[in-house]
Amino acid sequence: RMITQVLIGILSGAAILTAGILIGHYGISQSSSGAPPSWLKDVAKDVDESLIEKFLSEVDNIQIQENLRELTKVPHMATTAGDEQTVQFMLKRWQDPETGLDQAWREEYMVYLSFPDPKNPNKVTVGDPSDTVLHTAREKEKSYTPDQDDPEVVQPYAAYSPAGHAKGKLVYANQGKPSDYQLLNQTIDLRGTVAITRYGGAGRAAKAINAAPYGVLGVLVYTDPLDINDGLMSDIDETYPHSWYLPPSGVERGSFNTHYGDLLTPYLAAKEETYRIPAENITGIPHIPIQPIGFEDAYTLICDVKLDIFNHEEVKNSSNVMGVIRGSVEPDRYVIYGNHRDSWVHGAIDPSSGTSVMLELTRVLGSLVQQGKWRPRRSMIFGSWGAEEFGLIGSAEYTEQYFAKLSERTVAYVNVDIAVFANATLRASGMPSVQNILFAAAKQVDAPGLDSTSVYDNWVRYANRTSPAVGYLSGAGSDYAAFVHYLGITSMDISYTYDRTKTNARIYPAYHTAYDTFDYASRFIDPGFVSHQAIARTAGNVLIRLADSLVLPLNCSDYAEILEDYLGTAMTLYEHQLRARNISMGKDIMQVNVFIPAPPLSLHRSCLRPLKVRRINDQLMLLDRAFLDPLAFPDKHAYRHVIWASSDAGKPTFPGLADAFATAESSGQSRHWDKVHYHLSVLSQAIEGAAHTLVDVI
Q1: Residues 138, 299: contact at Cβ < 8 Å?
Q2: How do residues 558-607 score in pLDDT, each as one tens digit?
């Protein structure tokens, strides 16, 4: 009963908006005098279904294939010559007079990056007590195609690992979680050891950050074949180049930091003249050396292990490539579509599958604009983000530079990073309000390789439920992070993925290795590029609907359902213990001061003017902004969304409350229980505030 009370405001607001949608379609058909006003045709512009059908028909899988072939010709790690080559390629395509956008340009930032020393490679060796070297780990991955022999293939390394030398007895620390080191330390003195961990369970940087307090000197991390290869290990006939599985020498590179954005300019855009904090004040990076290796070497390492890490940091120029199609009616309302451009090596899947899709999508839309056949109601902004692999830097700096404008004007952000993990089914995550538009778009797209089956129907089949599950954007796994957590912009992430009943792979096996190439993508991930085509059609359909709909197709009632689920979980997990400590969920979260909304808007045909449509859309656009609290997570850089912030507790409920409760339960200290009370109050006021944004009038 009380859960229902909490949601009355939001659900009532949704009802008001439903009425508003009806009015939006029918209420401005004529002026009070009976004659259509002069501005009617433009202002009444709505989604043209025939335009969507035309868009779907013109998305070409062969064009996507050729985009990917071009993008993966050379490695293009951020700020390298290969990266600049992709910048020029994007600009050329987006400035094409026949198929380009209205405008395209580069946006430059001076960012703090970490690289290995090509003249002094990082080394991992096994020695005996007399320091005789018994084994040296590979410094580069085994070559199977000319791609691995490219001199620009960067040695596997852990970006932002400090330089240093560590030697000690090797201990296996599972996934490097706090609980793993705590358990080990009960039976082993970890001081002076080197830990070896497997990917998964904890973030990359956390594996070393968690180890340091126990006196561990250095950390190795490898990809376990049980986690990525379904246990297969032989490159004679089991792994790439014979299948999609990772060869024994494959090494997952990555950024080993816990924050996103440029590390020297937190909350500021990293322009040349921007103030930078001292490098020694950076938080969220390891303070002991860490190095990734292949499972081939992981199975060989024994006894004493030595790490010699020669990474170095420098500030370098990194570019976003930006493009825009200006809106015809509301040019000051933005729908943003983005994907990062940089990769660790050739990056066929991550990220070039997404970039190749974005290029095809913009080719089709650009052609329609250049031919004068169409222009969106709202402006479309396209972002090819730089330096994502080092910590979502390009997109984060963009949101910091244009914080005010984006906060006030952005309707939604669509992220397509890895467009195709595999070719089985759609996968989508986003705010609950985007669920309906994702479903609508997926229903209009044919599932690749299946007759008379839509992407939506195929998605339902794999979900094994009446409707597909849309995930949440609760972490910082891609460039949606700054839009969701920092700006509170309604966002989504879309891809095609694999059948999880047929593999235990935590991600596609060549991820962040030298084997993520055009050959790999075209042979094992998406032969024929029809899944790429399906993603381009689905994401483009979503984009057009967000940009062209008279009333934004965002559903508040879906948001209310998720909040109800979160509240139910919170009651089940926490209410009993909180009551025992005289902390009342009844006062703080279950009995929100519910307002009585104004009566629904009149449905009189002449009632709704353009400003009313605008007001309704602004209510929808700004709903997620109401959940922002800049003080809720002082220890989490740029996390401000109290519903979707990351959480260490692993509970399907409000993140701040879950983490505060876990800390208080572990420590038992009154100050930590006070923090639980604080987060209850944060939630109470955020939910009430969000509901009030949906009221018709004050």
Answers
A1: no
A2: 999 999 999 999 999 999 999 999 988 755 455 433 332 333 333 333 45
Shortest CA distance to 77 belongs to which of 110, 114, 123? 114
Beta bridge partners, 124, equal: 307
Pairing mode, if any, of strands 491-497 and 410-415?
Answer: parallel
CA atoms within 13 A on the CB side of 697: 5
Judged by DSSP in three states, 387 sits in coil
Tens digit of pLDDT for each residue in 532-561? 999 999 999 999 999 999 999 999 989 999
Which among 584, 519, 545 has a CA at the least distance from the CA of 438? 545
Return the ∠ at Cα 396 (arms to 220 and 381), rounded to 5°. Answer: 130
CA–CA separation, 166 and 574 (whole Å): 44
- pTM (2 decimals)? 0.92
Residue with tokens 């993140």: 655
SS3 144: coil
The H-or-E segment that residue 399 falls in is helix 393-401
As annotated, the active-site residues are 388
Q: Which of 347, 514, 389, 510 is nearest to 114 (CA)?
A: 389
User: Within 10 A of 669 (CB to CB), how many other CB atoms are there?
Assistant: 11
Proportion of the chain in helix, strand, coil states, percent, rounded to 5: 40, 15, 45
Which two structure tokens, joined as six digits, stand for 633? Answer: 């997570």
What is the spatial distance between Cα 241 and Cα 541, in angstroms, rounded to a whole number? 36
| % of residues, the chain, pLDDT over 70 | 91
**What is the rounded distance in angstroms from the CA atom of residue 89 to the CA atom of residue 112?**
25
Nearest to 446 by CA among 535, 542, 344, 549: 535
pLDDT for 135 equals 93
Q: Tokens 């400003």 label which residue?
A: 611
Write phi, then psi, for 100 (nearest 5 degrees).
Answer: -90, -175
Write the CA distances from 69 to 207, 343, 353, 527, 622, integer angstroms: 36, 15, 10, 13, 40
Q: What is the β-pairing status of strands 194-198 and 218-222?
A: parallel
Give me 540's structure tokens. 């483009």
Residue type, 488: G
Strand order through the sheet with 123-127: 133-136, 123-127, 304-309, 164-172, 194-198, 218-222, 290-293
3-state SS assignment for residue 267? coil
Closest CA to 400 of 242, 269, 305: 269
Where b means 16+ CB within 10 Å and e means fewer, 318-341 reads: bbbbbbbbbbebbbebbbbbbbbb
Alpha helices in 27-100 (DSSP H): 40-43, 49-58, 61-71, 81-94
Query: How are beta strands 290-293 and 218-222 bridged, if at all?
Result: parallel
Residues 6+ apart with CB under 8 A from 512: 252, 253, 254, 344, 345, 350, 389
Residue pair 11/594 in contact by the 8 Å Cβ criterion: no
Which DSSP letter does residue 529 get? G
Q: Which two tokens stand for residue 545?
A: 């609907």
Rounded distance between C-alpha atoms, residue 529 and residue 360, angstroms: 12
